Structure formats: C-alpha cells, structure tokens
Amino acid sequence: MSAASTSSAGYKMEPGALTSNFSVGDYARFFASGALCATITHGAMTPVDVVKTRIQLEPKGSKASMLSMGRQIIASEGPAGLLTGFGPTAVGYLIQGGAKFAGYEFFKKKGVDLAGSHEAAQRYRQAIYLGGAAAAELIATTLLTPLEAARIRMVSERGYAKGLVSAITRMGAEEGIRGFYAGYAPILCKQIPYAIGQFVTNEWAHTVADSAISKEDRAKYGKAGEVTIQLGCGMVAGVAAAVLSHPADTLLSKINKGGGGQGSAMTKLIRLAVETGPVGIWAGLGTRVLMTSFLVSGQFLIYAQVGQLIGKPPGIEIRSDSEKAKAVWSVRINFVRLTCKCRRKFPRARNPKIPPPDSPLQPRNPRSTLHAALLIFQATSTTSSLFLLQCKQMAGMDPFQVRLRFVSALQRVNASLPTIQKALSFVVEHAATLHPELWECITDELKSASINRRINLLFLIDAIFTDETLSATVRSVYTPHLERDLYLIFDLAVPEDRWNALLNLPAATKMISSWKSRFVLERGLLEDVEKMLEVRRAALYAMSPEKRRKTVVEAGDMQRRIEEDRERHKRLRERAWILPATAYTSQSLFGTRPEQLDPTYLTRTQTASPRAERDDVDGDRVWTTQDLDFSHMWEETSDFNDDDVEAIQEDLKLSWANQPPPTQPTPQPPIHPSRAQERFSASRPPREPASMRHPQRAP
C-alpha cells in the first residue's frame, strides 16, 4: 500500500465524482499522520543533520568525514551537542509534515477533479503530481522557514541560544521579521525539489511495485511484504529527494551563517553558488543521501501505519495503461546507463594495466564526488526497481485503472454486439474483487447518459443476467446490486420528465417480462417495476404540450436510435432462428418452487407458440432457450392471442355440431405369435433363387 498513493476502492464517493469525497476530519487524519511521521523521523535524524550541517560549514577544501566530525562535536560540546536544534526540528516538522502530506492529498484531488475526466487525469498525471507536491510544499515551507532558520543558527553558531524560544527571541530582536525569512528563497529552492523527488518518485516506485507484485502475492506476504514495499519505495524516493535538493541545501546553510554579502536573497544565492563552485556545492552529498533515504522511507512507513490506526482514508491513485511497460523500460535504460558509466569511470575493470585513480601515475578527478553520487543514485534506483520487477512479472490492474478502462468501455457501448462483449469482459474478469466499483460505474453512467445511451446500458445489464456464456457465479455476484438498484435503473432508463423516454418504454417492459420468465429476481419485485412502468407510461402520455416541447431531440440522435433498434431487431431474429438451441429441463430452468413445477405454469405465463414442447424419456418437459426467446417474440409481435383461440374453438364447434360422431373401429381378437408369423410369411411375395439374384455367384 502506497503511503501517498493508495487505492480508493471501497471509499464513499458522490454520484458522478471522479475522486473520493474527503471531509474535514479526513484531512485532519492526513495532517496528523504526516505530522507524526515527519516529527519522528526528523527528530531521530537530528544528530546526523547536525554533523552534515557542520561539514557543509567547514572551510573549502576540508576533508572532514561524518565520523570525524561527529567525534569532534562530542569532544568539544559533549553528547548533547549532537542534539542541538532538536526543539526547532520537532516543532517545525510537526507543522511542516502535516501541512505537506495533507496538502499533497488536497491538491492532488483538486488536480484530478479539475481534469474533468479519468482520461484527462491519466494524461496529465505527472503535472498533477508535480503541481500537488509543489503547492503543498510552498504552504508547508512558509510555516517552516522561521523555525528552520532558528535551527540552523543554533547548529552553525555554538552557544547561540539554549532553546527554541530563546533562539526565536534573539533573532527577532537582532534581525526582525526579515531575519526569519532571510533564506526563504533558498529554502523554497531546497524544499520544492525535495518534495517533488519525494512524492513523484514514490508514486513511480509504487507503480513499479504494483506492476511486479500481484494482489495474491501481497496477501501471501502479509504485513511483512507491505512494510518491505513501503520501505523500498521510500528508499528510492529519498535518494531522488536528496540529489535534487542538495545544492540548495548547501547554499541555505551558508546564507543562514551570514554568507553571501549584501543584497537580496536571490543575489546572495547566485553569489554563493559562484563562490562555492560546481564541486563544492555537492559537498556532503553522500552523507545526505544516506540520511534522506532512511528518513523518507521511515516517513512513508509511519505515514501508512499511523494512518491505518487512526482511520485515515486511502489517497488518490492515477495510473496509465502503459505504466508497467514504461517502468520496465525505465529500469532497463537506467541499467544500461549505469553499466556504461561504470566502464568509463573504472576502466581498469576492462584493462588491468591502467593504474587505479588513486595512484601517483594518474591524477585524481576533482569531480569524483559528483560522479560517485550520481552512480549511487542510479545504482540504488536500478537495483530497487529490478528487485521489485523480479518478484513477479504478471499482475492485475489496480482499481483505478480498471475503473478508468471500464468507464471508457461503457461510453462506447451501443447496439452492436462487440461493444457489449468488451464491457462484459470487465464484468466477468473482475467480478470477484471489484464488482461494487464496476456496478457503481454502470449506475453513474446511467445518471449522466442520454436517452439513447441509457437503453444501451440497460441492454448491457440485461446481458449480465441473461447471457448464457456467463457463469452462474458471475450472475450471483451482481444479483444483490441489481436487487438493490432495480427501481433506480428503470427510473433512469424511463425518466418521467422527458417526453422521449417513451422510446425506451417498450424495451424496458419486454426486459422485465424476460426477467420474469428467467427468474432473474423475485417475481414480486419485477411485478412492482412493471406496475411502475405502466404508471410511467400513463404519465408520459398525459404530459402537457408545454413540457413535451422542452424535450429537444436532435435529428442525429433519432437517426442513431433507428439504426440501433434495427441492429437489435436483427440480432433478436438471429437469436430466435439461427443460433443452436441449448436444452434445459423444466426443473433446472424453473427451480424447485411448487408453483414453478406446475405443468400449467408456463401455459399461464406464455401465450401459444407455433413451436411445440418436447418430452424426454422420463416425461419431463424440455424447453430450450430458443423456445423461450421465440415465445417472447411471438407474444410481443403476433396479433394471434387467446381471443382468436376461443373464436376458432367456437367455429369448430359450430362446424361439427350436425356431423355424426365417428364410428369406433371393430376390436380384433388377439393373434397367437405363431399364427402372426404365418400371416406375415404369407403376405410377403415369393423370394427369387440366389442364382437369379446374383448371377455371378452361379456355379
């Protein structure tokens, strides 16, 4: 489960909304989870951050390492010196972490909603990620800057203040409000790339993990697998965040120490960048990569676990159809680049005669630190990605991707059979896990579709419960949803406020009749809907001319409706006359209820059909799907009804009233078997000799 990108399946959504409807309490849980994860991780990293800041503030050309600087701080200030600035760090990142994580979820949701559709959100997902991370970090940084300035001043100047309050008081008295925001621009230059690397890379890492590890494997691995994925994705995101934000972090430390001379913050930033140089600006990168990778991975882990404890809702997912292929190719490209760089950087691996870089015969490369940092970043990202991809290559789509593609299939549903079959493929494939989401997509499309599209979606629902290629298990999964939303579906298919809803009324009525004969739902529920449709028919015919004129029907819609109805009638004729019949016994088709086992039950519910039923060996009536379909079509299209049957019977009675009754045949006595054989032999003509019948066999 992604800390910043988790599944939104199962969370409550408003009708027609693209994303989950988060309340104020939900954002409070986002804030609390982010505040705790940032405070705990940054507080635990205070000693490492102190050592890193002291290394950055050392004179140019200093060779101080992390271990030597730590020993120097303990020797001069004691162990408490490693905790310098813990108060500003805890308070500052309590506010900053909560605002950043909650803001990222807020702006990401707004970005998806502003996109207007799932396709647009998928197309511009990188812009949504970047914009959400940058906007959230801008707000969080504005709150963090005064506390961060006080922390750096306490770390860089020994004995500056004893605590956070005294440091803020001294800075306010000496420098005023401007002193707190002296490094605001460098902080933005540091924190915004940091947030972008943190969140965007984490989204990418989870995309690779989702593509490599299926839901079955996640369930098999349990909690340990979930924690491993969160830590691994966080490590990759931490490396990216450290590399992107390290130059600004170095300049920020120098500005807060008073460097840069006079002028605005940007002027100081440019002047310090020139003075530091392209090599010095990357000083301490290895230490910061180590610190940030553990820090960010711990943040995402704590954010997810604390969120589960306090009931934090899942975030918003944005996935593309080709995300897996892109992730795989990205890993392969990074691996090739890493191999080429390693061969150029360490040529002795190919030619042992070339002296190593540290030998006197070959001068040391001044940019070795930068190259080593880039190699570390690429090696970490590539190794992590390859490890995730090797777990499993095949995996199912995530819920957002399934919903996105299913909505796209629903928008293309018309009277043609291929469009219905494509939508049915999603219904069958994800029936076990995502049936609530798929059914919700159908009802949402019904609410926003036109009259023509609503009848197409109604036929799709009919196919779910009447298509013989679908198993009974799939139907049983969707039956509770149909029973719950039965009135809503037919109310949307035949709305009472649109005059052109009369176009959908005959098809809806026939569908209810078909469901009654197939026992899709309880007969009482279907009869109630049938009565509702009759009331709707009367209300539509009684609609005033003023209301009728408000319903505007385009000529193109009418032409499209005619073509779709023609296609449906053509398919109905093919189904009734061409398709082979599949036999069902009356017991298997009609269930075990006594009224359904009554031999006259079908006679009471079906009118006469020119096709007679068949009987099997046991006398059980056998009806086929073709019989039922033909009976429905005969009932709906034929003018021959029960009144005609009664009239024919009356005519027959009148025609044969004066005729004498037919004479009964004279009963014959039984014949003994031997006499019957004699009579049979006598009745046969004499047989010719074999020589005459087969001349070639004659001797």
TrEMBL record:
InterPro entries named among the record's database cross-references: CID_dom (IPR006569), Ctk3_C (IPR024637), Ctk3_N (IPR024638), ENTH_VHS (IPR008942), MCP (IPR002067), MCP_dom_sf (IPR023395), MCP_transmembrane (IPR018108), SLC25A3/Pic2/Mir1-like (IPR044677)
Solcar repeats: 25-110, 124-208, 225-309
Biased composition annotated in UniProt, kind: Pro residues: 659-672
GO biological process: mitochondrial phosphate ion transmembrane transport
Any Pfam family hit: CTK3_C
Region annotation (Disordered) ranges: 589-620, 651-699
GO cellular component, as recorded: mitochondrial inner membrane
A single GO molecular function term of this UniProt record: phosphate transmembrane transporter activity
Residue span, CID domain: 398-537
Subcellular location field: Mitochondrion inner membrane
Membrane-related topology note: Multi-pass membrane protein
Entry-linked PROSITE patterns: CID (PS51391), SOLCAR (PS50920)
Chief localization: mitochondrion
Keywords: Membrane, Mitochondrion, Mitochondrion inner membrane, Repeat, Transmembrane, Transmembrane helix, Transport
Protein family: Belongs to the mitochondrial carrier (TC 2.A.29) family.
Protein name: CID domain-containing protein
